Amino acid sequence: MPRPIPHIVWKKDRLRLLDQRLLPRRIVYVDCRTASEVARAIKDMVLRGAPLIGCSAAFGMALAARRRSARALEEAGRLLVKSRPTAVNLAHAVGAMRSAAETVEPARLPAVLARAAEGYYRWDLESNRRMAGLGARLLRKCSRVVTHCNAGALATSGIGTALGVVAEAFRQGRISHVYADETRPYLQGSRLTLWELMQEGIPCTLITDSMAAHLMKISRFDAVIVGADRIAANGDVCNKIGTYGLAIVARHHGVPFYAVAPTTTIDPGTPDGSRIPIEERSPAEVLEISGIPIAPRGARARHFAFDVTPARLVTAIVTEGGIVRPVCASGIKRLLAARPCPKT
Ligand code: MRU
User: Fold this and answer.
1) For residue 341, what pLDDT band results from cuts at 50, 70 and 90?
2) What pLDDT, on a 0 to 100 scale, did the predictor assign at position 275?
3) What is the b/e burial string over 152-178, where b = at least 16 CB atoms within 10 angstroms of the residue's CB?
4) Domain that residue 181 falls in
């Protein structure tokens, strides 16, 4: 198996990021030397995926700490948190770095925050491994599964969330085939998920976002497995646009729907999905594909980047701290009470 290409590299004075917008055609790296460059890279989708943008925000704070001022850290935190509004991992990572900086004298800030960011990154990596082990057990032998967007290694610091489960389940003989939604308009499914699955030698087929219903009607599926960008206190799951429709289709066909996410994606401060801020991106990203217009000049478009799947449609949520099933507020509360927080 080819060695995975590094997609986030901490170099102490800069954060080197694989430009995911160009995959799989080109391997190009972007160097960020300041927190505002990291925030810009997150906003512009150089990197994406809730856990990975959380880790890069932690490194962004470590870059800001090089200015040895509490005020610079505060400004950097604000900038990073608002770079993308939906994934709560950004706020979680910035909060963890702020805590690590408390009572630290200015001269020591660079070393302390660099160590804290590295710890945050390692925690995410380990959480992926744990979720993979727990989640794989939910699947029976030779399962056929559908996934949406990209919840693989490229979206985290480790082996991925939903795709980490898929990879481990494949190793155990529990996966026979993965169907990946292409995920309009950024095509994370076709460009990134297919690329990762094929590198791992996992049998996979690309489908457009609207094909899952038809496929579930004409053939057997055993599970839908997706990641998450924010999970509300009642278990509502916010993930890439199209996930909600997929969950409805799965319920209609009696197919279990699993969300896989670290506890850093759970936001106890958001009571339910209706309070989750849904990022709306530029309509140009819907009106064009690779810069080529696909609608009449002057056409209007909306571009919601995420949607919310109500808890009642989610069969189980897999986290590094355990599985929540049935998905409900009390289950989430119990899980969080026992959650091992990132060591920073
Ligand atoms: O817009 P993106 O590519 O950042 O959206 C990513 C997703 O929706 C993923 O499913 C989610 O972040 C989970 S990734 C482990």
Assistant:
1) low
2) 98
3) bbbbbbbbbbbbbbbbbbbeeebbebb
4) 130-337
The reply to whether 137 and 262 lie within a common domain is yes
Q: Looking at residues 123-143, what average pLDDT do you find?
A: 98
Q: How remote is the CA of residue 155 from the centroid of ligand 1, in Å?
A: 7
**Number of domains forming the structure of the chain:** 2
Name every protein residue with a CB atom under 6 angstroms from any ligand 1 atom.
48-51, 87, 149, 151, 155-156, 161, 188, 226-229, 239-240, 305
pLDDT tens per residue, range 53-67: 999 999 999 999 999
Give residue 5's pLDDT. Answer: 87
Cα 156 to averaged position of ligand 1 atoms, centre (Å): 9
Question: Domain with 280 in it: what CATH number?
Answer: 3.40.50.10470
User: Ligand 1 mean position to 188 CA, how many Å?
Assistant: 9
Catalytic residues: 229
Whose CA is closest to atom 8 on ligand 1?
Answer: 240
Q: The domain that contains 49 carries what CATH number?
A: 1.20.120.420
Which of 187, 239, 258 has the most ligand 1 atoms within 8 A of CB, as the residue to mutate?
239
How many angstroms separate the CA atoms of 293 and 271, rounded?
Answer: 40
Q: Check residue 4 and give its pLDDT.
A: 74
Mutate to test the pocket of ligand 1, among 196, 229, 243, 246 (most ligand atoms within 8 A of CB): 229
